[in-house]
Design goal:
The complex is a heterodimer of chains A (about 325) and B (about 200). Chain A has about 325 residues and is α/β, with parallel strands linked by helices. Chain A has eight helices and 14 strands. In chain A, the strands form three sheets. In chain A, strands 1-2-4-3-5-6 form a six-stranded mixed β-sheet, with helices on both faces. Chain A has a six-stranded mixed β-sheet with strand order 9-8-7-12-10-11. A two-stranded antiparallel sheet of chain A has the order 13-14. In chain A, helix 3 links the parallel strand 5 and strand 6. In chain A, helix 2 crosses helix 3, helix 4 runs antiparallel to helix 5 and helix 6 packs across helix 7. The longest helix of chain A has 17 residues. Chain B contains eight helices and no strands. Chain B has one domain: Serine Threonine Protein Phosphatase 5, Tetratricopeptide repeat (Alpha Horseshoe). With about 200 residues, chain B is an all-alpha fold. In chain B, about 70% of the residues lie in helices and about 0% in strands. The chains are: A alpha/beta (about 325), B mainly alpha (about 200). Chains A and B meet through strand 4 and helix 3 of A and helix 1, helix 2, helix 3 and helix 4 of B.
Chain lengths: ~325, ~200
Protein backbone atom coordinates (compact mmCIF):
# COMPACT_ATOMS: atom_id res chain seq x y z
CA UNK A 1 0.00 0.00 0.00
CA UNK A 2 1.43 3.39 -1.01
CA UNK A 3 1.76 6.05 1.68
CA UNK A 4 2.78 9.70 1.49
CA UNK A 5 5.60 9.31 3.99
CA UNK A 6 9.39 9.57 4.03
CA UNK A 7 9.81 6.45 6.13
CA UNK A 8 7.83 4.55 8.73
CA UNK A 9 10.13 5.66 11.56
CA UNK A 10 9.76 9.39 10.95
CA UNK A 11 5.99 9.69 10.46
CA UNK A 12 5.31 11.56 13.71
CA UNK A 13 8.40 13.77 13.59
CA UNK A 14 7.81 14.73 9.96
CA UNK A 15 4.13 15.48 10.55
CA UNK A 16 4.95 17.62 13.61
CA UNK A 17 7.46 19.56 11.52
CA UNK A 18 4.69 20.21 9.01
CA UNK A 19 2.28 21.39 11.69
CA UNK A 20 4.88 23.77 13.07
CA UNK A 21 5.62 25.16 9.61
CA UNK A 22 1.96 25.50 8.63
CA UNK A 23 0.60 27.05 11.82
CA UNK A 24 2.51 29.95 13.38
CA UNK A 25 -0.11 29.96 16.16
CA UNK A 26 1.42 26.70 17.40
CA UNK A 27 4.76 25.96 19.00
CA UNK A 28 5.95 22.39 18.50
CA UNK A 29 8.44 20.89 20.95
CA UNK A 30 9.91 18.12 18.81
CA UNK A 31 12.13 16.74 21.54
CA UNK A 32 9.33 16.17 24.03
CA UNK A 33 6.65 15.73 21.36
CA UNK A 34 4.22 18.34 22.57
CA UNK A 35 2.17 20.83 20.54
CA UNK A 36 1.56 24.11 22.40
CA UNK A 37 -0.15 27.41 21.76
CA UNK A 38 2.64 29.74 20.67
CA UNK A 39 1.24 32.35 23.07
CA UNK A 40 2.09 30.22 26.13
CA UNK A 41 0.07 29.80 29.32
CA UNK A 42 -2.19 32.61 30.51
CA UNK A 43 -1.91 33.34 34.24
CA UNK A 44 -5.07 32.35 36.09
CA UNK A 45 -6.49 30.23 33.24
CA UNK A 46 -6.94 26.50 33.68
CA UNK A 47 -4.66 24.69 31.22
CA UNK A 48 -6.14 21.97 29.02
CA UNK A 49 -3.96 19.04 27.96
CA UNK A 50 -5.08 16.16 25.83
CA UNK A 51 -3.32 13.56 23.79
CA UNK A 52 -3.48 10.08 22.47
CA UNK A 53 -2.22 7.96 19.68
CA UNK A 54 -1.52 9.69 16.38
CA UNK A 55 -3.56 8.89 13.28
CA UNK A 56 -6.74 10.70 14.44
CA UNK A 57 -5.84 14.12 13.05
CA UNK A 58 -6.93 16.84 13.45
CA UNK A 59 -7.51 15.38 16.96
CA UNK A 60 -5.66 16.44 19.17
CA UNK A 61 -2.93 18.74 17.85
CA UNK A 62 -5.29 20.48 15.44
CA UNK A 63 -7.41 21.58 18.40
CA UNK A 64 -4.66 23.48 20.18
CA UNK A 65 -5.41 27.18 20.30
CA UNK A 66 -7.68 29.84 21.71
CA UNK A 67 -10.88 28.36 23.08
CA UNK A 68 -9.72 24.75 23.11
CA UNK A 69 -6.53 22.99 24.19
CA UNK A 70 -3.34 24.51 25.56
CA UNK A 71 -1.26 21.48 24.65
CA UNK A 72 -1.56 18.13 22.87
CA UNK A 73 0.68 15.10 23.32
CA UNK A 74 0.79 12.89 20.22
CA UNK A 75 1.86 9.28 20.71
CA UNK A 76 3.01 6.93 17.99
CA UNK A 77 0.31 5.88 15.52
CA UNK A 78 -2.60 4.48 17.59
CA UNK A 79 -0.38 4.32 20.68
CA UNK A 80 -0.96 6.54 23.69
CA UNK A 81 1.69 9.10 24.58
CA UNK A 82 4.18 8.30 27.32
CA UNK A 83 3.94 9.90 30.79
CA UNK A 84 7.02 12.09 30.21
CA UNK A 85 5.27 13.94 27.39
CA UNK A 86 2.19 14.60 29.46
CA UNK A 87 4.19 15.70 32.53
CA UNK A 88 6.19 18.11 30.36
CA UNK A 89 3.02 19.54 28.77
CA UNK A 90 1.24 19.79 32.11
CA UNK A 91 3.91 21.88 33.80
CA UNK A 92 4.38 24.04 30.70
CA UNK A 93 0.69 25.06 30.44
CA UNK A 94 0.03 25.56 34.14
CA UNK A 95 -0.93 29.20 34.60
CA UNK A 96 -1.37 28.69 38.33
CA UNK A 97 -5.02 27.59 38.11
CA UNK A 98 -4.32 23.90 37.56
CA UNK A 99 -4.50 21.67 34.52
CA UNK A 100 -7.27 19.49 33.12
CA UNK A 101 -6.34 16.25 31.37
CA UNK A 102 -8.83 15.12 28.75
CA UNK A 103 -8.36 11.37 28.35
CA UNK A 104 -10.06 8.96 25.97
CA UNK A 105 -11.01 5.72 27.66
CA UNK A 106 -8.47 3.21 26.36
CA UNK A 107 -6.34 1.08 28.65
CA UNK A 108 -3.09 2.63 27.39
CA UNK A 109 -4.26 6.24 27.54
CA UNK A 110 -5.68 5.79 31.02
CA UNK A 111 -2.51 4.11 32.35
CA UNK A 112 -0.15 6.70 30.89
CA UNK A 113 -2.24 9.75 31.85
CA UNK A 114 -2.79 8.35 35.36
CA UNK A 115 0.97 7.95 35.84
CA UNK A 116 1.53 11.44 34.41
CA UNK A 117 -1.10 13.01 36.69
CA UNK A 118 0.60 11.46 39.74
CA UNK A 119 4.02 12.71 38.63
CA UNK A 120 2.65 16.20 37.90
CA UNK A 121 0.97 16.20 41.30
CA UNK A 122 4.36 15.41 42.86
CA UNK A 123 5.71 18.47 41.04
CA UNK A 124 3.02 20.60 42.67
CA UNK A 125 0.64 21.06 39.73
CA UNK A 126 -3.04 20.61 40.50
CA UNK A 127 -4.42 18.14 37.95
CA UNK A 128 -7.99 17.03 37.28
CA UNK A 129 -9.05 14.56 34.59
CA UNK A 130 -12.08 14.01 32.40
CA UNK A 131 -12.47 10.53 30.99
CA UNK A 132 -14.30 10.44 27.66
CA UNK A 133 -16.27 7.24 27.04
CA UNK A 134 -19.03 7.94 24.55
CA UNK A 135 -18.96 4.91 22.24
CA UNK A 136 -22.19 2.94 22.64
CA UNK A 137 -20.89 0.10 20.47
CA UNK A 138 -18.99 -1.20 23.47
CA UNK A 139 -20.95 -2.64 26.34
CA UNK A 140 -19.85 -0.91 29.50
CA UNK A 141 -19.48 -3.83 31.80
CA UNK A 142 -17.10 -5.91 33.84
CA UNK A 143 -16.35 -7.84 30.68
CA UNK A 144 -14.80 -5.05 28.63
CA UNK A 145 -12.32 -2.23 29.18
CA UNK A 146 -15.40 0.02 29.12
CA UNK A 147 -16.73 2.33 26.44
CA UNK A 148 -14.18 3.93 24.18
CA UNK A 149 -13.64 7.65 23.86
CA UNK A 150 -14.36 8.82 20.31
CA UNK A 151 -16.18 11.80 18.75
CA UNK A 152 -17.32 13.34 22.04
CA UNK A 153 -13.67 14.13 22.77
CA UNK A 154 -13.97 17.05 20.36
CA UNK A 155 -17.08 18.32 22.17
CA UNK A 156 -15.37 18.04 25.57
CA UNK A 157 -12.26 19.85 24.33
CA UNK A 158 -14.30 22.64 22.73
CA UNK A 159 -16.76 23.23 25.57
CA UNK A 160 -14.34 22.81 28.49
CA UNK A 161 -11.88 24.97 26.54
CA UNK A 162 -14.48 27.72 26.16
CA UNK A 163 -15.26 27.68 29.87
CA UNK A 164 -11.55 27.75 30.75
CA UNK A 165 -11.13 30.94 28.68
CA UNK A 166 -13.63 32.70 31.00
CA UNK A 167 -11.30 32.12 33.96
CA UNK A 168 -13.50 29.45 35.56
CA UNK A 169 -11.80 27.33 38.24
CA UNK A 170 -10.46 23.84 37.57
CA UNK A 171 -13.33 22.04 39.32
CA UNK A 172 -15.92 23.81 37.12
CA UNK A 173 -13.98 23.20 33.91
CA UNK A 174 -13.65 19.51 34.82
CA UNK A 175 -17.35 19.33 35.71
CA UNK A 176 -18.52 20.78 32.40
CA UNK A 177 -16.22 18.34 30.58
CA UNK A 178 -17.72 15.42 32.48
CA UNK A 179 -21.22 16.76 31.81
CA UNK A 180 -20.59 16.98 28.05
CA UNK A 181 -19.30 13.42 28.07
CA UNK A 182 -22.32 12.19 30.04
CA UNK A 183 -24.67 13.85 27.53
CA UNK A 184 -22.88 12.49 24.44
CA UNK A 185 -22.97 9.17 22.62
CA UNK A 186 -21.24 7.92 19.47
CA UNK A 187 -21.37 5.03 17.05
CA UNK A 188 -19.01 4.29 14.16
CA UNK A 189 -19.30 2.33 10.91
CA UNK A 190 -16.42 1.24 8.68
CA UNK A 191 -16.63 0.60 4.95
CA UNK A 192 -12.95 -0.36 4.85
CA UNK A 193 -10.19 -1.04 7.36
CA UNK A 194 -7.29 1.39 7.67
CA UNK A 195 -3.64 0.86 6.84
CA UNK A 196 -1.05 1.84 9.43
CA UNK A 197 2.28 3.06 8.04
CA UNK A 198 4.21 0.43 10.03
CA UNK A 199 2.06 -2.51 8.93
CA UNK A 200 1.58 -1.30 5.35
CA UNK A 201 -1.51 -3.46 4.99
CA UNK A 202 -5.09 -3.34 6.26
CA UNK A 203 -5.53 -3.85 10.00
CA UNK A 204 -8.41 -6.26 9.36
CA UNK A 205 -10.13 -7.85 6.39
CA UNK A 206 -13.45 -6.58 5.15
CA UNK A 207 -15.08 -7.98 2.04
CA UNK A 208 -16.18 -5.87 -0.94
CA UNK A 209 -19.82 -6.25 0.09
CA UNK A 210 -19.46 -6.00 3.86
CA UNK A 211 -19.44 -3.18 6.38
CA UNK A 212 -18.38 -3.26 9.99
CA UNK A 213 -20.70 -1.80 12.62
CA UNK A 214 -19.46 -0.44 15.92
CA UNK A 215 -15.85 0.24 15.01
CA UNK A 216 -13.41 2.17 17.13
CA UNK A 217 -10.83 4.66 15.93
CA UNK A 218 -7.72 2.47 16.01
CA UNK A 219 -8.37 0.18 13.11
CA UNK A 220 -9.76 -2.42 15.48
CA UNK A 221 -12.65 -4.41 14.04
CA UNK A 222 -16.14 -3.66 15.31
CA UNK A 223 -18.87 -5.67 16.97
CA UNK A 224 -20.70 -7.04 13.97
CA UNK A 225 -20.24 -7.37 10.26
CA UNK A 226 -23.25 -6.90 7.98
CA UNK A 227 -23.85 -6.72 4.25
CA UNK A 228 -23.20 -3.30 2.74
CA UNK A 229 -26.38 -1.21 2.69
CA UNK A 230 -27.56 2.27 1.65
CA UNK A 231 -26.44 5.24 3.76
CA UNK A 232 -29.98 5.49 5.18
CA UNK A 233 -29.79 2.01 6.72
CA UNK A 234 -26.28 2.47 8.09
CA UNK A 235 -27.17 5.81 9.68
CA UNK A 236 -30.31 4.30 11.19
CA UNK A 237 -28.36 1.40 12.64
CA UNK A 238 -25.93 3.86 14.26
CA UNK A 239 -28.61 6.21 15.53
CA UNK A 240 -30.85 3.50 16.91
CA UNK A 241 -27.92 2.30 19.05
CA UNK A 242 -27.42 5.88 20.25
CA UNK A 243 -31.16 6.42 20.78
CA UNK A 244 -31.51 3.22 22.83
CA UNK A 245 -28.83 4.48 25.18
CA UNK A 246 -29.30 8.24 25.29
CA UNK A 247 -32.93 8.82 24.33
CA UNK A 248 -32.96 11.36 21.52
CA UNK A 249 -35.04 14.48 22.22
CA UNK A 250 -34.68 18.23 22.69
CA UNK A 251 -31.84 20.27 21.22
CA UNK A 252 -28.78 18.44 20.00
CA UNK A 253 -25.27 19.01 18.77
CA UNK A 254 -24.52 16.45 16.06
CA UNK A 255 -21.16 15.54 14.57
CA UNK A 256 -21.12 13.45 11.41
CA UNK A 257 -17.46 12.56 11.37
CA UNK A 258 -15.45 11.07 8.55
CA UNK A 259 -12.91 8.38 9.44
CA UNK A 260 -10.35 9.83 7.02
CA UNK A 261 -11.08 8.09 3.73
CA UNK A 262 -14.70 9.02 3.10
CA UNK A 263 -15.50 11.98 0.83
CA UNK A 264 -17.38 14.93 2.30
CA UNK A 265 -20.22 14.43 -0.17
CA UNK A 266 -20.95 11.06 1.45
CA UNK A 267 -20.82 12.59 4.91
CA UNK A 268 -23.48 15.09 3.84
CA UNK A 269 -25.61 12.23 2.55
CA UNK A 270 -25.27 10.70 6.01
CA UNK A 271 -26.10 14.00 7.69
CA UNK A 272 -29.37 14.28 5.75
CA UNK A 273 -30.35 10.87 7.09
CA UNK A 274 -29.40 11.87 10.63
CA UNK A 275 -31.55 14.98 10.29
CA UNK A 276 -34.62 13.05 9.15
CA UNK A 277 -34.16 10.39 11.85
CA UNK A 278 -34.05 13.00 14.60
CA UNK A 279 -37.02 14.90 13.16
CA UNK A 280 -39.10 11.72 13.22
CA UNK A 281 -38.41 11.51 16.95
CA UNK A 282 -39.19 15.16 17.59
CA UNK A 283 -35.58 15.98 18.33
CA UNK A 284 -33.83 19.00 16.85
CA UNK A 285 -30.33 19.49 15.55
CA UNK A 286 -29.46 22.99 16.73
CA UNK A 287 -25.69 22.80 16.21
CA UNK A 288 -23.79 20.60 13.80
CA UNK A 289 -20.42 19.72 12.39
CA UNK A 290 -19.72 17.65 9.27
CA UNK A 291 -16.20 16.63 8.29
CA UNK A 292 -13.08 14.69 9.22
CA UNK A 293 -12.34 15.51 12.85
CA UNK A 294 -11.65 12.28 14.74
CA UNK A 295 -10.15 10.08 12.08
CA UNK A 296 -8.61 6.65 11.82
CA UNK A 297 -5.90 7.23 9.21
CA UNK A 298 -7.33 6.33 5.80
CA UNK A 299 -10.29 4.29 6.99
CA UNK A 300 -13.46 4.68 4.96
CA UNK A 301 -16.47 5.14 7.15
CA UNK A 302 -18.13 7.55 9.50
CA UNK A 303 -19.18 8.03 13.07
CA UNK A 304 -22.11 9.92 14.51
CA UNK A 305 -21.85 11.73 17.83
CA UNK A 306 -24.88 13.32 19.47
CA UNK A 307 -24.72 15.63 22.50
CA UNK A 308 -27.93 16.69 24.21
CA UNK A 309 -27.44 20.41 24.64
CA UNK A 310 -28.44 22.81 27.39
CA UNK A 311 -28.51 26.58 26.95
CA UNK A 312 -25.19 26.88 28.73
CA UNK A 313 -23.54 24.18 26.60
CA UNK A 314 -24.86 25.86 23.44
CA UNK A 315 -23.35 29.17 24.56
CA UNK A 316 -20.00 27.52 25.24
CA UNK A 317 -20.10 25.71 21.89
CA UNK A 318 -20.76 29.03 20.15
CA UNK A 319 -17.93 30.82 21.99
CA UNK A 320 -14.98 31.89 19.83
CA UNK A 321 -12.40 29.28 18.90
CA UNK A 322 -9.23 29.62 16.87
CA UNK A 323 -7.37 26.40 16.20
CA UNK A 324 -6.11 24.76 12.98
CA UNK A 325 -9.03 22.32 13.09
CA UNK A 326 -11.93 24.47 14.34
CA UNK A 327 -12.33 28.23 14.10
CA UNK A 328 -15.22 30.63 14.41
CA UNK A 329 -16.36 33.81 16.12
CA UNK A 330 -13.04 35.56 16.40
CA UNK B 1 22.79 -14.32 38.63
CA UNK B 2 24.79 -11.09 38.52
CA UNK B 3 24.45 -7.77 36.74
CA UNK B 4 25.94 -9.03 33.43
CA UNK B 5 23.35 -11.85 33.50
CA UNK B 6 20.49 -9.36 33.61
CA UNK B 7 22.08 -7.18 30.94
CA UNK B 8 22.43 -10.33 28.80
CA UNK B 9 18.76 -11.15 29.46
CA UNK B 10 17.73 -7.76 28.09
CA UNK B 11 20.04 -8.29 25.08
CA UNK B 12 18.32 -11.60 24.46
CA UNK B 13 14.83 -10.06 24.83
CA UNK B 14 15.78 -7.26 22.43
CA UNK B 15 16.98 -9.76 19.84
CA UNK B 16 14.00 -12.09 20.10
CA UNK B 17 11.47 -9.23 20.05
CA UNK B 18 13.15 -7.83 16.92
CA UNK B 19 12.91 -11.24 15.25
CA UNK B 20 9.29 -11.77 16.38
CA UNK B 21 8.22 -8.18 15.73
CA UNK B 22 6.02 -8.98 12.73
CA UNK B 23 4.53 -12.03 14.42
CA UNK B 24 3.51 -10.00 17.49
CA UNK B 25 2.09 -7.29 15.28
CA UNK B 26 0.06 -9.85 13.34
CA UNK B 27 -1.36 -11.28 16.55
CA UNK B 28 -2.26 -7.74 17.59
CA UNK B 29 -3.83 -6.95 14.21
CA UNK B 30 -6.30 -9.80 14.72
CA UNK B 31 -7.71 -8.53 18.02
CA UNK B 32 -6.02 -5.22 18.76
CA UNK B 33 -4.44 -2.41 16.82
CA UNK B 34 -1.45 -3.96 15.07
CA UNK B 35 1.33 -2.23 16.95
CA UNK B 36 2.49 -4.58 19.70
CA UNK B 37 5.58 -5.82 17.86
CA UNK B 38 6.64 -2.35 16.77
CA UNK B 39 6.14 -0.90 20.25
CA UNK B 40 8.09 -3.60 22.09
CA UNK B 41 10.84 -3.53 19.47
CA UNK B 42 11.21 0.22 19.97
CA UNK B 43 11.02 -0.14 23.75
CA UNK B 44 13.61 -2.89 24.20
CA UNK B 45 16.01 -1.24 21.76
CA UNK B 46 15.75 1.81 24.00
CA UNK B 47 16.42 -0.44 27.02
CA UNK B 48 19.56 -1.78 25.35
CA UNK B 49 20.74 1.78 24.66
CA UNK B 50 19.96 2.89 28.21
CA UNK B 51 21.85 -0.04 29.74
CA UNK B 52 24.84 0.66 27.49
CA UNK B 53 24.80 4.39 28.18
CA UNK B 54 24.59 4.00 31.95
CA UNK B 55 25.86 0.52 32.93
CA UNK B 56 23.94 -0.43 36.06
CA UNK B 57 25.78 -1.24 39.28
CA UNK B 58 23.48 -4.07 40.37
CA UNK B 59 20.84 -6.44 39.01
CA UNK B 60 18.20 -4.33 40.75
CA UNK B 61 19.46 -1.17 39.07
CA UNK B 62 19.43 -2.90 35.67
CA UNK B 63 15.82 -4.01 36.17
CA UNK B 64 14.63 -0.60 37.40
CA UNK B 65 16.40 1.20 34.54
CA UNK B 66 14.87 -1.19 32.00
CA UNK B 67 11.41 -0.71 33.51
CA UNK B 68 11.65 3.06 33.64
CA UNK B 69 12.86 3.14 30.04
CA UNK B 70 9.90 1.06 28.89
CA UNK B 71 7.46 3.35 30.73
CA UNK B 72 9.11 6.38 29.17
CA UNK B 73 9.52 5.08 25.61
CA UNK B 74 6.75 2.66 24.69
CA UNK B 75 3.38 4.23 25.45
CA UNK B 76 0.21 2.24 24.97
CA UNK B 77 -0.72 -0.25 27.67
CA UNK B 78 2.35 -2.43 27.19
CA UNK B 79 4.81 0.33 28.18
CA UNK B 80 3.41 0.95 31.66
CA UNK B 81 2.63 -2.74 32.21
CA UNK B 82 6.02 -4.21 31.21
CA UNK B 83 7.76 -1.18 32.70
CA UNK B 84 6.03 -1.78 36.01
CA UNK B 85 6.84 -5.49 35.86
CA UNK B 86 10.60 -4.87 35.54
CA UNK B 87 10.59 -2.01 38.04
CA UNK B 88 8.84 -4.16 40.63
CA UNK B 89 11.35 -6.94 39.99
CA UNK B 90 14.17 -4.46 40.49
CA UNK B 91 12.70 -3.16 43.72
CA UNK B 92 12.24 -6.74 44.96
CA UNK B 93 15.90 -7.66 44.43
CA UNK B 94 17.06 -4.38 45.98
CA UNK B 95 20.82 -3.80 45.81
CA UNK B 96 21.84 -7.46 46.06
CA UNK B 97 24.94 -8.00 43.89
CA UNK B 98 23.83 -11.57 43.12
CA UNK B 99 20.28 -12.78 42.66
CA UNK B 100 19.58 -16.29 43.92
CA UNK B 101 16.84 -18.41 42.29
CA UNK B 102 14.79 -17.87 45.46
CA UNK B 103 15.12 -14.11 45.15
CA UNK B 104 14.31 -14.20 41.44
CA UNK B 105 11.15 -16.17 42.29
CA UNK B 106 10.16 -13.39 44.69
CA UNK B 107 10.98 -10.77 42.08
CA UNK B 108 8.83 -12.48 39.44
CA UNK B 109 5.96 -12.65 41.93
CA UNK B 110 6.41 -8.92 42.55
CA UNK B 111 6.29 -8.30 38.79
CA UNK B 112 3.01 -10.17 38.54
CA UNK B 113 1.54 -8.30 41.50
CA UNK B 114 2.55 -4.97 39.97
CA UNK B 115 1.02 -5.82 36.61
CA UNK B 116 -2.23 -6.98 38.19
CA UNK B 117 -2.48 -3.92 40.41
CA UNK B 118 -2.00 -1.55 37.47
CA UNK B 119 -4.07 -3.38 34.87
CA UNK B 120 -6.51 -5.10 37.25
CA UNK B 121 -6.50 -8.21 35.08
CA UNK B 122 -7.15 -11.68 36.45
CA UNK B 123 -6.12 -14.99 34.94
CA UNK B 124 -8.53 -15.89 32.18
CA UNK B 125 -9.05 -12.29 31.01
CA UNK B 126 -6.89 -13.03 27.94
CA UNK B 127 -3.93 -10.81 28.82
CA UNK B 128 -0.22 -11.09 29.61
CA UNK B 129 -1.27 -12.29 33.07
CA UNK B 130 -2.32 -15.60 31.51
CA UNK B 131 1.32 -16.28 30.63
CA UNK B 132 2.98 -14.53 33.56
CA UNK B 133 0.96 -16.05 36.41
CA UNK B 134 1.58 -19.72 35.53
CA UNK B 135 5.23 -18.90 34.80
CA UNK B 136 5.66 -17.34 38.24
CA UNK B 137 4.06 -20.41 39.86
CA UNK B 138 6.18 -22.83 37.82
CA UNK B 139 9.38 -20.93 38.60
CA UNK B 140 8.71 -21.00 42.37
CA UNK B 141 7.70 -24.64 42.29
CA UNK B 142 10.86 -25.63 40.41
CA UNK B 143 13.01 -23.64 42.84
CA UNK B 144 11.40 -25.52 45.73
CA UNK B 145 11.78 -28.87 43.98
CA UNK B 146 15.34 -28.21 42.87
CA UNK B 147 14.31 -28.30 39.19
CA UNK B 148 15.25 -26.09 36.25
CA UNK B 149 13.22 -23.01 37.17
CA UNK B 150 13.80 -20.90 34.02
CA UNK B 151 12.95 -23.91 31.87
CA UNK B 152 9.76 -24.55 33.84
CA UNK B 153 8.75 -20.88 33.70
CA UNK B 154 9.37 -20.61 29.96
CA UNK B 155 7.29 -23.72 29.28
CA UNK B 156 4.44 -22.58 31.56
CA UNK B 157 4.38 -19.15 29.89
CA UNK B 158 4.27 -20.68 26.44
CA UNK B 159 1.43 -23.00 27.46
CA UNK B 160 -0.36 -20.12 29.17
CA UNK B 161 -0.09 -17.99 26.03
CA UNK B 162 -1.40 -20.81 23.85
CA UNK B 163 -4.27 -21.31 26.30
CA UNK B 164 -5.46 -17.74 25.64
CA UNK B 165 -6.52 -18.73 22.10
CA UNK B 166 -10.07 -19.91 22.94
CA UNK B 167 -10.65 -17.21 25.57
CA UNK B 168 -12.88 -14.16 25.21
CA UNK B 169 -10.96 -11.01 26.16
CA UNK B 170 -12.22 -9.10 29.18
CA UNK B 171 -9.47 -6.48 29.45
CA UNK B 172 -7.66 -4.21 27.04
CA UNK B 173 -8.51 -3.36 23.49
CA UNK B 174 -9.42 -6.91 22.49
CA UNK B 175 -12.32 -6.79 24.95
CA UNK B 176 -14.19 -4.50 22.52
CA UNK B 177 -14.54 -7.48 20.20
CA UNK B 178 -16.42 -9.58 22.72
CA UNK B 179 -16.80 -13.19 21.53
CA UNK B 180 -14.94 -12.36 18.30
CA UNK B 181 -11.72 -12.13 20.29
CA UNK B 182 -11.85 -15.92 20.78
CA UNK B 183 -9.72 -17.98 18.42
CA UNK B 184 -6.68 -15.70 18.58
CA UNK B 185 -3.63 -15.80 20.83
CA UNK B 186 -3.29 -12.76 23.06
CA UNK B 187 -0.30 -10.68 21.88
CA UNK B 188 0.65 -9.63 25.42
CA UNK B 189 0.67 -13.25 26.60
CA UNK B 190 2.77 -14.14 23.53
CA UNK B 191 5.36 -11.44 24.26
CA UNK B 192 5.48 -12.46 27.93
CA UNK B 193 6.29 -16.00 26.79
CA UNK B 194 9.11 -14.60 24.61
CA UNK B 195 10.56 -12.68 27.55
CA UNK B 196 10.58 -15.79 29.76
CA UNK B 197 12.02 -17.91 26.95
CA UNK B 198 14.78 -15.27 26.73
CA UNK B 199 15.41 -15.75 30.45
CA UNK B 200 15.81 -19.50 29.90
CA UNK B 201 18.11 -18.98 26.91
CA UNK B 202 20.25 -16.50 28.86
CA UNK B 203 20.78 -19.09 31.60
CA UNK B 204 21.97 -21.76 29.17
CA UNK B 205 24.55 -19.60 27.42
Amino acid sequence: MKKLINGTDTVITDALAGMAAAHPSLRVDQENRVIYRASGPRPGKVGLVSGGGSGHEPLHGGFVGYGMLDAACPGEIFTSPVPDQVVEATSAVDGGAGVLHIVKNYTGDVLNFTMAAELSGDEGVEVASVLVNDDVAVQDSLYTAGRRGTGATLFVEKIAGALAETGAPLAEVAAVGADVNARSRSFGVALSPCVTPAAGKPTFELGETEVELGIGIHGEPGRTRVPAAPARNLVRAALSAIHDDLGLSGENLVLVNGMGGTPLIELYIAFAEVDSYLRERGAQITRSLVGNYVTSLDMQGFSITVCRLTDELTRLWDAPVETPGLRWGR
Amino acid sequence: MDTPFFTAWFEEITDVVAVQREHLTELDAAIGDADHGANLDRGFKAVREALAAKPPASPGAALVLAGSTLIRKVGGASGPLYGTAFREMGKAVGDAPEVSPELLAEALAAALAGVQKLGSAEEGDKTMVDALAPAVRAFSQAVRDGGDAPEAAARAALEGAAATIPLTARKGRASYLGPRSAGHEDPGAASTALILEALRATGTR
